[in-house]
Amino acid sequence: MELELRGITKRFGALVANDAIDLVVREGEIHALLGENGAGKSTLMNVLYGLHAPDEGEILVDGRPVTFSSPGDAMDAGIGMVHQHFMLVPTFTATENIVLGSELVRGGGLLDRRRARQRVVETSERFGLAVPPDALVADLAVGVQQRVEIVKALLRQAQVLVLDEPTAVLTPAETDDLMRVMRELADAGTSIVFITHKLREVRAVADRITVIRRGRVVGEASPSSSSEELAALMVGRDVRLTVHKAPATPGDVVLDVEGIRVTDGAGTVLLDDVSLTVRAGEVLAVAGVDGNGQTELTRAVVGLQAVDAGRLSLSGEDVTGEGVAGLLARGVGYVPEDRLHDGLVGSFSIAENLVLDLSSSPEFSSGPALDRAAVARNAEARVAEFDIRTSSPQAAVSTLSGGNQQKVVLAREMSRPLKLLVVAQPTRGVDVGSQEFVHQRIVAERDRGAAVVLVSTELDEVRALADRIVVLYRGRIAGEVGPGATQEELGLLMAGARPSGAAAASATASTATDPERDSA
Amino acid sequence: MSAPTSPAAVPDAVVVHARVEPTAGLRRRVVTGLLLVAVGLVTVLGWGLGSGPGDATFRFGGGAAIRLPDLTVPGTATPVLLGAVVLALGAFQLVRGFRLRRTPVVVGVTLACFVVAFLAWAMSGRAGGSIDVVQLLQSTVFLATPLVLGALAGVLGERSGVVNVAIEGQMLTGAFAGALVATLAGSLGAGVVGAVLAGAAVGWLLAVFALRYQVNQVILGVVLNAAALGFTGWAYKALMQADTERFNSPGVLQPLPIPLLSDLPVVGPLLFSANVVVYLMYVLVVALQVVLFRTRWGLRTRAVGEHPKAAATVGIPVLRVRYVNVVVAGGMAGLAGAYLSIGTIGPFTENMSAGKGFIALAAVIFGRWSPKGAVAASLLFGFFAALQTLVGILPTPAAVPSSFLAMLPYLATILAVAGFVGRVRAPAASGEVYP
Amino acid sequence: MRRLRWGGTWLVTVFAVVGALVVGAVLIAVGDARTRDAATYFFSYPWDTFTEAGYAVRDAYAALLQGALFNPALSGTAALGPISETLVNATPLILTGLAVALAFRVGLFNIGAQGQIILGAVVAAYVGFAWDLPAGLHLLVALLGGVLGGTLWGGLVGWLKARTGAHEVITTIMLNYVAVNLLTFLLGLQGFQRPPYGQAISEAVAPSARLPLLLGPSLRVHLGLLVALAAAVGVWWLFTRSTLGFRLRAVGANPDAARTAGMAVGRLQVVAMAAAGGLAGLAGASQVLGVTGSVTGSVAGTVGFDAITVALLGRNNPYGVVAAGLLFGGMRAGSVQMQSATGVPVDLVGVLQALVVLFIAAPALVRAVFRLKPGGARAVGSELSAGWTR
Question: Is C73 exposed, middle or buried (0-12, 13-18, 19+ CB in 10 A)?
Answer without folding.
Answer: exposed
